User: Fold this.
Amino acid sequence: MNYESVIGLEVHAQLATTTKIFCGCSAEFGGDPNTHVCPVCLGLPGALPVLNQNVVELAIRVALSAGCTIQPRSRFLRKNYFYPDLPKGYQISQFQSNEEMPLATGGGVDVPTADGGRKTIRLTRIHMEEDAGKSIHQEVFVAAGESLVDVNRCGVPLIEIVSEPDLSTSEEAFHYLTSLHQLLVYTGVSEGDMEKGHMRIDANVSIRPVGETQLGTKVEIKNVNSFRNCQRAIESEIQRQIDLLETGGEIEQATMLYDPDRNILRAMRTKEESDDYRYFPDPDLVPLVVDNAWVERVQSQIPELPEDKRERFAEVYDISGDQIDVLTADRDIADYFEAAVAAGAQSRLAANWIQGDVMRVLNDRKIAVGDLRVSAEYLAELIGLIDKGDISTSIARTVFDDMVETGESASSIVEKKGLVQISDAGELDGVIDQIIADNPEEVERFKGGDQKLMGFFMGQLMRATKGQANPQKASQLLREKLG
Amino acid sequence: MADDSVFSAQTARGLVQGIRRGTHTAREITEEIFAHIHNTNPDINAFITIDEEGAFKAADAVDQKAAEGQVLGLLAGIPIALKDVLCTKGLRTTCASKILDNFIPPYDATVVTRLRQADAIILGKLNMDEFAMGSSSENSHFGAVKNPRDQTRVTGGSSGGSAAAIAAGQALMTLGSDTGGSVRLPASFCGVVGLKPTYGRVSRYGLIAYASSLDQIGPFARTVEDAATLLGVIAGHDPRDSTSAHVPVPDYLLACQRGVDGLTIGLPTEFFGEGLQSDVRNAVMQGVEVLEKNGASIREVSLPTAGHPAFAIAAYYIVATAEASSNLSRYDGVKYGFRDEAENLIDMYVQTRSKGFGAEVKRRIMLGTYALSAGYYDAYYRKAQQVRTLIRRDFDRAFESCDLLASPVSPTPAFKLGEKLDDPLQMYLSDIYTVSVNLAGIPGISVPCGTSTEGLPIGLQLLGNTFSEETILSASAVVERELAS
Assistant:
């Protein structure tokens, strides 16, 4: 029996706001436990939530970028359950049903398919909600019969992006997540820092015989924190379900937790134990009205999206498709590239330099391109010097390293260190003659047919000129003189 | 209270003027009133927490300001006490519950901040039905409040301490909260003035929530004028409360002078039907006649849904308990308040809440949880909210032809302590004339209008359309003036 898998993903993404969704506390990651708190996010008696407008702005922005419809009127609901890291005993969220509309519905994200094509993964909805706190079950506390709760994260603004079960493979799931991540970071809606837990994924996985239209029983995998782990977890679960069916078993609806260290899934709870959240509209908040004017304003402020940027690069710049993908993956890198070209750099050279030396430095130093001391204009100047023939590529790389350290321009470093390439035949002549005179044996062997010795002569020439000989000119002159 | 006491006959305004002129000091007033409280509270049990240190500190600050000739707040030196449902920074706030027995809020409710800014002297926190759930102020972890007019009887609830403190002269003004009648009922039973403002008129930030879409903080006082003054101080939009209204605050004190000439007052037929004790009816009609004599015209109106006890009470007890079941989830022993130690999390939750909450609170949490649960939400909560819309429409329609509505506050005057404790449904029926008002969000007052054959106080309920507190106060002042003797 051949099975196909049906996968839907729910992604919780943290919004890039300064403060929390219902109070003015800092939404920053970390901080000493229970210091980013106030009566509201602590759930103290008498406290009331007040909606952060910036949260709505960002949610609308990403929803429009994904082609969603913004609901003109939506409400917040209470999702009631007891857990120590949920101070109020309920989470303020949104819901979707016949009566309730979340902020945004519809929309989609494109992913590449196995056969080289593309397909759209439809979205069900995007809604806003508050995050819960953190429970700390470190061994030292558990041994003492305690767990600790850090409320800092309570009230941090999240959006939940729910997809239709349109994903067919774990690879597609991986691509969906990277595309979604890119969209969130591109639009400035989320910082997308996976180490800070900015994106958490729940996957719903079911299988069915190929050709069957009815969905199989779905199993939920909760709280996966990386895209690769998500892909692995889905693969694991698909295999588990296939094995179960093939040995005559039945798939029970369940919730699983993925253990990345051992690459296994652990059951969390079965259907019978699942909570009744008793959703009802939160009477402390008024319905949210988003009018056309607001939507239009947000729409006009959306930056160029990755797909559009890729298309434009292909039209405007003479660089390869692979280079386009690398350069447009990060919006800041793309901007840097464009600024360098605008400052006069030849586009292919600029692409090479950014893909190579620039990104090497960024990775080594773990900095963003905005923190690099080599501005796009300075890079353009450096590239210009190579293009003009003032310096060789290998010299240019040492100049670049200097620029990164000192923040100076290429031309000033070249001048200070006297690194201008020597291309003048007259200058090189004398040096070459000296080398020939100093190495009569090697000259004999070369004339006798040992072509490999060209490398030796070039090396000598470079040493004598401190690497500043123009390689092409040097090679040409050497050949002339050596015959 | 002694007749020669420094403020036995004065209104708040007079008292503040006296401080400005130096006739008396805030400290003198505060000393005198604490002496009286210590004398009377063991019997009345209106106070849960008495804060002499805080009160004297505030009094001295007021006297200092007065001595320096600084501008004094509207309530300078006025002794005020607060229902223990309002958060007071650094001062224990219990909601009359064991589960908050040791809770000390780190912040002030917005209304408390406004009182402090007005230089009021906060004496302490007042007894109530636990978590504002009750109609008699007997459901308290700290014992029942006794009616100063007859200590064998209840004060009404849930703001029983707030009404009793006024009636016993333990404070010049108090604040209570009204979710289904909890200001108006005790005001009626104790013979004082109690007002429930329009929903959204007064900020709920810092009001420990019972039913979020119904709760409002309301002023109690001996006179309509003082209630109006207090309302003026606490009313107004608050950015910390998303449900507070962007409606400017008028001069409520001035409104007390306006009279009722030309106003139309409606009597809802359904509120004068069976079950209404005859001496209550008579006292209420006495009040209505006063209004007519002073230029108002009286007519009958019908409130078919709002006036139907089954619909109004049922809708209220579903909506209120549903919201309460969620609002009270935070009392779980994890962060503050009482915690019963246990071997695991579930046991901790169950034991803490079972031991920490009283019977009536547990009853309502269970009712509310049921009404919201899967499979029942549509039949109960959703349906109740739809009935609520019909109730609101009843009042909208009535106010097309009337400026105010007049009715009793409750079918009977204050009943005996313990009389209704065994029959929760009987207790709930005390609210038949008051709950629909909260469901509709409109304002209402209870102003004394007579006594029962046994000499117990009876209140006249006046209702107005949203944000018509001025009209309500005008009419109340007329009733008070004529029936003051």
